[in-house]
Automatic annotation (TrEMBL):
Taxonomic lineage of the native organism: Bacteria, Bacillati, Bacillota, Clostridia, Peptostreptococcales
Gene3D superfamilies: Aldolase class I
The protein's name in its UniProt record: Triosephosphate isomerase
Pathway in which this enzyme or protein is active: Carbohydrate biosynthesis; gluconeogenesis; Carbohydrate degradation; glycolysis; D-glyceraldehyde 3-phosphate from glycerone phosphate: step 1/1
Any one GO biological process: glycolytic process
One Pfam assignment: TIM
Location(s), subcellular: Cytoplasm
Residues involved in substrate binding: N9, W10, K11, G172, S211, G232, G233
Top-level taxonomic group: Bacteria
Catalytic activity: D-glyceraldehyde 3-phosphate = dihydroxyacetone phosphate
Presence of the UniProt keyword Isomerase in the record: yes
NCBIfam families: tim
PANTHER family, per the entry: TRIOSEPHOSPHATE ISOMERASE
Length: 248
């Protein structure tokens, strides 16, 4: 049984004070045993968030990391540093990182392997642009991203990876992929994973991301292959976050 995972990606929003107020407001209202609730915040908020969420069921994650342990990489943060403050998850290869910060399938793969080595669960992102969808190459594109992202991941580690399918045209646009469109690509991603890992693919959780909100989360989560949501905008408001985690 795949435990649903609702992860908020705050992106570059909220200062420490706002992050702590959020946790106070959400408190024990997001405490389902049957759903994993995660908040992925900017680096500076993570240590305080981890402390503040003690005693709640909320897990905390980063939005990026470097694949090297240490060295001359100005402005970067290593997996070891994230591990030191108890991070549960790290988002890897979000489309905004790929687009604005030059991340490639190769660096994404190095980060996935490093996170697993250090014991932080990676949320591996993939997804197509509007042009790619219109050109009919969505599945080819996500297949390439997933096979490259998971390269050299062992069977044992595979189940620690969460995959997030986020069509770029649906991110922050209010345009959600229909639940069926999302499920179609996500089922295909599971087939791609199965082509390498066999039945283990049935244990991998695959999220949908792109304009998920309280009003559409139940329909999305009702699909056969969708195991969670990676939520940007709607995860910033405490009440919406609570509603997302408490989807029926
Ligand atoms: O990581 C989250 C996604 O980029 C979705 O963002 P959004 O919910 O604001 O569309």
């Amino acid at each position: 049984m795949r435990k649903p995972i609702i992860a908020g990606n705050w992106k570059m929003n909220k200062n420490i004070k706002e992050a702590l107020e959020f946790v106070k407001e959400v408190g024990s209202r997001a405490d389902r045993d049957d759903v994993e609730a995660v908040i992925c915040a900017p680096f500076l908020q993570l240590k305080d968030l981890k402390e503040a969420t003690k005693g709640t069921k909320i897990k905390v994650g980063a939005q990026n990391m470097h694949f090297e342990t240490s060295g001359a990489f100005t402005g970067e943060v290593s997996a070891e540093m994230l591990q030191e403050i108890g991070m549960d998850y790290v988002i890897i290869g979000h489309s905004e990182r790929r687009e604005y910060f030059g991340e490639t399938d190769e660096t994404v793969n190095k980060k996935v392997l490093k996170a697993l080595q250090i014991g932080i669960n990676p949320i591996l992102c993939c997804g197509e642009t509007l042009e790619q969808r219109e050109a009919g190459v969505t599945k080819d594109h996500v297949k390439t991203q997933i096979l490259a992202g998971l390269k050299d991941v062992t069977n044992e580690d595979l189940v620690k990876v969460v995959i997030a399918y986020e069509p770029i045209w649906a991110i922050g646009t209010g345009k959600t992929a229909t639940a069926e469109q999302a499920n179609d690509v996500i089922s295909y991603i599971r087939e791609v994973v199965a082509s390498v890992y066999g039945d283990l693919a049935n244990e991998v959780r695959i999220q949908y991301g792109g304009s998920v909100k309280p009003a559409n989360v139940a329909e999305i989560m009702g699909q056969s292959d969708i195991d969670g949501a990676l939520v940007g905008g709607a995860s910033l408001k405490a009440d919406d976050y609570v509603a997302l985690v408490n989807f029926k």
